[in-house]
Amino acid sequence: MEKLLHNIFSVRKAWLLPALLLAGCACLKAQQPGQKPGPRPVYQTEGEKEAASKRIHILHANYLSIEKMNDESVQKLIGNVRILQDSTYFYCDSAYHFEQSNQLKAFGHVKVEMPDSVVLLANRMDYDGNEKVAYVYDDIVLTDHEVVLTTDRLVYYRLERYGKYEDGGQIKNEQDTLTSMTGYYYPDEHKAYFRENVDLKSPDYTLATDTLGYHTELKIAYFMSPTIIVSDDGEILATRGTYDSRYKKIELFERSVVKDSTYILTADSLFYTDSTNFGLALGNIFIQQEDSSLEIRGNYGTFNRQTNESVVTQGAVAIQYMDDDTLYMFADTLYSRKDSNDNRIFRAYHHLSFYMNEMQGKADSMVYFFTDSMMILYADPVLWSDMNQLTGDTVRIWMKASKADSMWVGRNSFMVGEEDTVGYNQIKGKEMRAKFRDNQLARLHVIGNSESIYYNKNDEGHYEGMNECIAQEMIISLVDNEVRKIRFNADPEGKYHPIHEVLFQEFQLDGMRWRIAERPLRPQPTSGGSFRPLFHGQNGPPELPPTTLPDSEAPNSIPQTMPRLPGQGTDDTKEGSK
Question: From the CB of residue 156, how many other CB atoms can be counted at a distance below 10 Å?
Fold first, then answer.
């Protein structure tokens, strides 16, 4: 066969050379010296232009023969085949050119060079010259600058300028590797889309999802279905969002979860930039500390991984689960951070209130030191334990085994206890120290300028009279939050009044205020899965609507630093040393 082809080409060469020489002489004769070449042919109609762009030109083959296949004339090309169609070059070892249907079948070392710098390599190709669609098979490599696509079956649409695979493939650039069952690549737009078993591997993370878009130049991944992102720092569970590999910036929507070794963070929308270590959470925020049973909820939050700081506002509530009780804490702003010794400090700013079964309270602000299990209440703090009310300039409570163990009330300390309709037991002094048993007041030590008013009952439980006492110090014993015994460290000054002589308005210590209307009640659950505070004297503040973003919009401007909080610059260690 090879010898036959060689003879055919040898015969053709014998008559082809004289013909070419005659044609050259004719051209030289027609073109006089100094005369410009004639104009090139111009295709007058769009149809003619389109037909010309579809025409397949055979540029070279070592051997050529004409055959018939299915009543169609076919050019059979063998050896170093080069073909041109509309600025795109095709190379292969051998090929069939179907002239009438304008189809091409190429075999062996197939190469397609497109004018947009896209190069396609394969072992086999079926090409539709009319539609300009290439069907390529086996060991396929498509390169576009730094992007490399590999698969075993690919369809490339030259007119639409994109390629797709449906039996598994991979796209790589200098940084990321993406694999999927189905993929679409658009070189002009630098975009790729993936479906089914999508895996993205980057030096810093891996991503698994079902639907993904990817910008090969910007190196941004767009995921649009349930997605898992895993890195050395933890993992992210998301439904929709973007990840920028160059700037390590992530945007998550539609309720995402972030987990690491220290916390779990959930929110409607999450934004984080690795270069600044700063993140933003919006809408129905839920944070759970892994090293404690503390939960924080709200609708607007910021966090900084470098400084271990987080701030939550807009319906902020902290929930501490204990063995037989739960502490609910509400404030305008909740702030948490770790110090240089990795000790966590928790703060609550403005309109603070808290509730647990055996104790409730409110203040303007609070700080809690986890290492010392100590809570400090600032600015007009007030506590309630059963029917006893405690106030002072500052209150410190030490916890033990998730229960109140001891307490210090500094300056202007005052305790009031309601005695049915008779009046109020009242105790005041410069400061107070208290001990708790099962979260109930068991012992109260009043120090400095102590004063008291308390009512006596007989064995039948009837009120007999009232005692007024002044002493340097007092020690009060309580059982079930009721005063049972008062001891004095020196001779007190006192006066007894029979019950029929007692008028409540006349027997009040200076500074006495009964503030029961401010007492927090059990918090109410909200429709968003959080809680809102409720107080004895009112129905509670209106429920805050959840803060969410529009479907596909991120904030126009995300702050790059933590908000400055009142008292944030103080020395926390000194604050908790007393």
Answer: 27
